[in-house]
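Hey, can you fold this?
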Amino acid sequence: MVKIIDIGMNHETASVEQRERLATGSDSISKTLAFMREIDCIREGLFLSTCNRIEALFTTDEAVEAKKSIISLMSKIGNIPEKELIPSLFVFEDADAVRHIMRVASSLDSMVVGEPQILGQVKEAYVLATREKTSGVIINRLMHRSFHAAKRVRTETEICEAAVSISYSAVELAKKIFHMLDGKKVLLIGAGEMAELAARHLIAQGVSSVVVANRTFERAVQVAELFDARAVSFEEIETQLCDVDIVVTSTASREYVVTYPQVKSAFKKRRNRPLFFVDIAVPRDVQPEVNKLANVYVYDIDDLKGVIELNKAQRQQEAVKAERIVQEEVFKFERWFKTLEVVPTIVSLKDKVEDIIQAELKKSHLSFSELSQDQIETIQTLMRSIAEKIINDPILYLKRKADRPTLNSYLDVTRNLFNLDQDSEDME
């Protein structure tokens, strides 16, 4: 019997160091899929690798051997001894594996529930699997069902609406200050992951431009390219303060990056236009005294906690709806998956009918000698039509029983009733 298995690690089961060692790019994933394709006990496979998760989804007839092979493969990819790797891995099988991959695609298993990036990453992993020809009937069906579940979660719930991360919260606060962010200018100080995420959300809300400042100018250029932005040096920060509306800081500096004198000096040229700081650094990047200036708003990471907790509660309520949607899609997939057990019997039944038709045509060959080819084809079509109608009801009956625990009994009766396991010699 075919089993669906998912083995991997995520932000809850493994340290960032372990995830980093196993994380791979698309080229490496293609190589990993090639290795999976060479493992005899694995029928179909998909490999997902992101900053927060690495997992292999596969089907097999030999579960124990297949799991050992995948764990060994992961050990080699990350150069991590299996004894050290295994405690950080999760293993899901059958319905649990189906539910897991649907929850992943729907962003219910993410560090930030509802974040939009994971669905694109799952789709990319599936594209690679199809390109490398490691996906098949089961994984194809499962992934499309997962994408459908994710779409339903996004359209039927508001799980993506409430801010739960620091970056989301920063954007929510900016909207409260300015009401609308259309046309606003943003300065990112620091070029880490949180700053990138904040920039994505700000751009999605309509800000007109983004400037990136980082101690390492090369990194500033890299991040700027992601957003069609402009990179500047740290020495240009004070100049930029004269022009921007929102400043997001997230450096690892032990000293203040933005000081009271800098902002006060810049404000003389701003003509009292509001300036909004979101300081998500620990230790803080913005000198606290800056908040004393008129029309300057400084929020640090502690100020954001209230927004985060409030929106966590909102998302948890929406997550209940999302989990229900996922469970519905799991049931639908399971119903289809169980019909695969009746496929061999249905195929055998159709083959038996075709063998009988061919045998009878062979016996009647001489009787057809005076008939035209069109007449012979008409007789053949009639024979097949009658045969298909006779076996149609048994086929539909088997499909309806596919999710019953007594399915094997129905299959045995069908195979015996139609003598499907007879030797080919008996047909002669």
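Oh, and this one too while you're at it.
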Amino acid sequence: MWNVRETTRRRACAAPAAVLGTVPDAVPTDTRRMTLTETPPLSRAAEAPDVTLARLRRLLDVSVALSALTDAPRLLDYIARTTTDVLDCEAASILLFDETTGALRFASATGVAGAALVGTEVPLRSSLAGTLFLEDRILHAADAEADPRRYRSTDEATGFVTRSLLGVPMRLDGRPVGVLQALNPRRGAFDRADAEALLVVASQAAVAIRNARHETALQRANARLADLDRLKTNFMSIASHELRTPLAAVQGYGEILAEDLQGDLRLHADAIVQAGERMHDVVETLDVMASLQSGTEARPGVRTSLAAVLGEAVAEDAPHADVALPEGPLLVEGDARRLRLAFGHLLRNAVRFSAPGQPVRLAAKVASGEVLVTVSDRGRGVAADDLERIFDAYVQVEDADHREHEGLGVGLTVARAIAAQHGGQIWAESDGPGRGATFHARFPLAR
């Protein structure tokens, strides 16, 4: 009986024109694994070269077509139809192993009963298909009707009579995952050329099925990621909306208490107001992230003094920073609250990664109808490979297990998003680790 691995090796090493002639004339037969109805296919009589060439071209067409198909059901149907055509038989079928039930299940079939077979099972221990699957070898039952391993329930259910069967295992990563079988040749009997062609189709089909499975798994993973992304976006949107009302109450009552109280109580009330302001920034950050994920545009802006925005950001987030601003309001079109949030994140980032006593510097200048703002520090610095990555959401360059600084890792993402929504840009420069960093922000001046 043929050995599948040896036959496959011979086929891979042979010249393309000899594919159908790679099965040796003397094939060892293991009579213990055969019944009287099972025989090796005989050699095919000499045929015209153009007939052999046509068959080889068909096999090449199969390879090209299988590489283009990624939908598993269409792929399996194509394999079954091609097998029927190439081997000129009444029907062909593909059975895949079901690990849950431990049986072979029809995945595709041609012939008058093909559609009725799909989804039905064939046992491994009492069927021709199960035999070739378990023994991982080619099987040719020239008189299948007399073979005791023939699974008669299938024929009885469909009315199709299996007179002769030629089958080969379909193997992935060195183990069989199913079988490809041809039934009832229309001329004479199945021969060695048919068996070799079936091996070629089966090996191509196995690779194509694996690729289709990987494609399906990838599509499912992407769909799941998209669902999780929508869930995250919805959560951020709902959270930012629901937090606004109680936060407004905390801030309002805190400001009232700060006006009426004196001494230590006044300090406590001021702390409440400051905490409310910081919480408001968190809510705005969530809102920006939600709008960034959903593609929502920024709210229409008005003429805003960027100088005033920068002053507020410095007072709250970097009160010891060195500031150098030109004269004038630096008017831009935008949302003052959002712009203050963006520069707050830039300043907090500079302060966070600077050693005590190392100054943070904020400067601005006007050039070519734009205002250019820089936030510089002499702190940890950024490696060249991380200059863009630090703007990705939830990315922190520090080792997650040895973080020295708190934060979600979205501040720079939000700052860049706000700049883009206002027609501006933010980018970073650094001479490397330990040499500080400078963040540049560019915004068009209002006309």
